[in-house]
UniProtKB/TrEMBL annotation:
Keywords: Ion transport, Membrane, Transmembrane, Transmembrane helix, Transport. It is a multi-pass membrane protein. Residues 1-20 have a biased composition (Basic residues). Belongs to the cation diffusion facilitator (CDF) transporter (TC 2.A.4) family. SLC30A subfamily. Residues 1-24 are annotated as: Disordered. Residues 34-227 form the Cation efflux protein transmembrane domain. SUPFAM superfamilies: Cation efflux protein cytoplasmic domain-like (SSF160240), Cation efflux protein transmembrane domain-like (SSF161111). GO terms for molecular function: zinc ion transmembrane transporter activity. This is Zinc transporter ZitB. It comes from Paenibacillus crassostreae. Residues 234-305 form the Cation efflux protein cytoplasmic domain. It is found in: Membrane.
Length: 315
C-alpha cells in the first residue's frame, strides 16, 4: 500500500507542512475567538438573570437561560479544541479530533432542550400573561444584544465559523441568543405601547422555533461526520472521475472519503492501473489531483495491477 506521507519529495513535504500550519493557525484563531466570547457571554448571563427576576420577564429569563447554555457551549467548544490538540496514540491513531464533533452534537441537542423549555414555559403564560416592567426589560435586552453581537463578531473575526462545526455550533448558540434579545426588545415595545403582555410568550415561542431550525442543522451535520459521511463540499463521483481520467488508470474502487474533524478530510482508495505503467508516477499524479482539485491532504492510495487479487470489501 502506498501512502503519500511516506514518499520523501521535499516539495510535497513542504506543502504538507504548510497546510498543517494553516490548519493549526485556524485552530489558534478559533481558540482566541471562543475565549473572548465566553467572557462576554458569562457577564451578560448574570445581568439578564437578575434583570429577569427584577422585571418578571420570561423573555429575559429565557434569554439568560440561553446565555447559560451559550457559556456552556463556548466552554465545551474550548475544551474540545484543547482535547483535540492532544497527540495521537497507538490506541487513538487519529488523535482526539472527533471530540470536537461530539461537542458540536451536544451543543445542538442542548439548543433543542432550551427551545423546548421556552415553548413549555410560554404556553403557560398565554392564558394569563403577567404584567412586566417592560422599560427595564428592554434596557437589559439591549445590553444583551450588544454583547451577543460583539461575541459573534469576535468568533467571525478570529475563528472559522463557516467550516468548523464545533465553532459553528457555539456561534449559532450566540446568534440564537441575539435573536432572543431582539425578541425581548420587540416584546417590550409592544407591551409599553399597547399593554399587550401576551407579546412576551408569543415572541419567546417564535425565537424558540428559530433556535430549533439552527439546532437541527448542527445535529444533522455532526451525525453525518460521526457516521463517516462524505464531506458536504466533496462529490464522490467527481473524485472517482478525476482519478480515472489519469493516463494509465483502468478503474478506481473501494473509494472512501470522510472527515476526521472540520477542515481535516481523509481519503482512501484502490487504483487499478495498466501493467506497463509506472505506479509511482500515477500515485504522484493522484496525490496532486486530490490536493489541488479537492483540497484533500490526508490520502491513502493502493496501486494495483491485474495480478493483484483481494476480496471485495463489504463497504
Amino acid at each position: 500500500m502506498s501512502h503519500h506521507h511516506g514518499h520523501d519529495h521535499s516539495h510535497a513535504h513542504h506543502d504538507h507542512t504548510r497546510s498543517h500550519n494553516h490548519f493549526e493557525e485556524m485552530r489558534e484563531g478559533n481558540k482566541k475567538g471562543l475565549v473572548i466570547a465566553l467572557l462576554i457571554t458569562t457577564g451578560i448571563m448574570f445581568l439578564e438573570f437578575f434583570g429577569g427576576l427584577i422585571t418578571n420577564s420570561l423573555a429575559l429569563l429565557s434569554d439568560s437561560g440561553h446565555m447559560l447554555s451559550d457559556a456552556s457551549s463556548l466552554l465545551l467548544s474550548l475544551i474540545a479544541i484543547w482535547f483535540a490538540s492532544k497527540s495521537a496514540s497507538p490506541h487513538k491513531t487519529y488523535g482526539y479530533y472527533r471530540f470536537e464533533i461530539l461537542a458540536a452534537l451536544f451543543n445542538g441537542v442542548s439548543l433543542f432542550v432550551i427551545a423546548g423549555f421556552i415553548v413549555w414555559e410560554a404556553s403557560g403564560r398565554f392564558a394569563d400573561p403577567p404584567s412586566i416592567a417592560s422599560g427595564s426589560m428592554m434596557i437589559i435586552a439591549a445590553i444583551g444584544l450588544l454583547a451577543n453581537l460583539i461575541s459573534a463578531w469576535s468568533l467571525m473575526r478570529k475563528g472559522d465559523v463557516k467550516n468548523n462545526i464545533n465553532l459553528r455550533s457555539a456561534y449559532l448558540h450566540i446568534l440564537g441568543d441575539a435573536l432572543g434579545s431582539i425578541g425581548a426588545i420587540v416584546a417590550g415595545i409592544l407591551m409599553l405601547s399597547f399593554g399587550w403582555y401576551v407579546a412576551d410568550p408569543i415572541i419567546s415561542v417564535f425565537v424558540a422555533l428559530l433556535i430549533l431550525k439552527s439546532a437541527w442543522g448542527i445535529i444533522k451535520h455532526s451525525i453525518h461526520i460521526l457516521m463517516e459521511g462524505t464531506p458536504v463540499t466533496i462529490h464522490q463521483e467527481e473524485v472517482k472521475t478525476a482519478l480515472e481520467s489519469i493516463h494509465g488508470v483502468i478503474n478506481v474502487h473501494d473509494l472512501h472519503i470522510w472527515s476526521i474533524t472540520s477542515g481535516l478530510d481523509a481519503f482512501s482508495c484502490h487504483v487499478l492501473i495498466e501493467d506497463n505503467q509506472d505506479g509511482q508516477i500515477i500515485l504522484q499524479q493522484a496525490i496532486n489531483v486530490l490536493k489541488e482539485t479537492f483540497k484533500i491532504d490526508h490520502t491513502t492510495i493502493q496501486i494495483e495491477t491485474a495480478d493483484i487479487k483481494h476480496q471485495e470489501l463489504k463497504v
